[in-house]
Amino acid sequence: MTLLAATEIPRAFFWKGDHLALLDQTMLPTQQIWLPLFNLEDVSEAIRMLRVRGAPAIGVAGAYGAVLEIRLRSRSENLDQGPEWLKHLLEITEALRQTRPTAVNLFHCMDRMDRVARDIVSESGQAAFDSFAAGDRMEAEALAIHREDEEICNRMGSHGAELIADGVSILTHCNTGAVATGGLGTALGAIYTAHLSGKKIQVYADETRPLLQGGRITAWELFEAGIPVKLITDSMAASVMADGKIDLIMVGADRIAANGDTANKIGTLNLGILAKHFGIPMYIVAPTTTLDPSLASGQEIVIEERKADEVRQFQGQYSAPPEVDVFNPAFDVTPGELITGIVTELGVHRPPYDFRSVMAGKS
Ligand code: MRU
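A: This is the predicted complex of the input protein with MRU.
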């Protein structure tokens, strides 16, 4: 078995200054296509179409998208007045917020870009406004967001890896790996970290219908890393647990309410219920940027509904009547009471969860 070097993990994107080079995740694993994204429209389309996906990754990509667009507009609209520049920046970040509603990381990143933009304008005061210098500061902020996400992944990975004993078998869902973040990943980051420390792990990866992030991306990442992985369809999860094949469930999150209720890829709730039935510990691994302490419970989380054809079709071919009615929520909410622990970069949080206090203590 190979122990991958941390430098060998795949990447979701590379910042190139005048564009974002983005790995088109819709084409994985058969093709690795790098798309150059130049503006708001390119980045918004990539987020909406899941070319870049995973809560932390869309936050970082969104921040870079804001930099690209404000620089373009600064030139084309000759934005030499601070208030006018800020109006454009706020319009850009709002457009990015509209791309996907559930993952809160994107919203936190856009809020952060807005805060910096407001600071830049208020600091410029009566002096002449320099939109080029302002663009550079926005770029520095996007780079900081990316770098911090990478560091957070490493810290989460270490905390999560402590929960993984040598020789265990882990069930995971969707893709929480390197391409879903700006670094090593969340739940898969913990698995990579445990593997790098020499632990033997068997991963079971749910295929994750309808868009197969588990089959196309998690199975690919783990296989490439030399980590033993067995791919199962989502409907096999109960049976593999009943057979005693699973010691631990580890998944990611898109938004976690103050009480620990966790929105994650559709199908995660099934695993939470099964975990309770079979007495298997279930851990969420997510950065504090995925926490939304403003929401008291998961009932307040907005769940994205996606196009009907994602369910009616299988890899571009109709596998159901083209006119049949469809319900296609992209996420579900697992109640905090079904979750054994939530791993963030701060450590392992146990129930009863109170992320309002955790975040108040952090700031
Ligand atoms: O719709 P996606 O593919 O963006 O959904 C992603 C997930 O649900 C992941 O499990 C979650 O974002 C954690 S990513 C590290």
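Residues 209 and 351 are 30 Å apart (CA to CA). Residues 50, 53-56, 103, 174, 176, 180-181, 186, 213, 252-254, 264-265, 330 surround MRU (CB under 6 Å).
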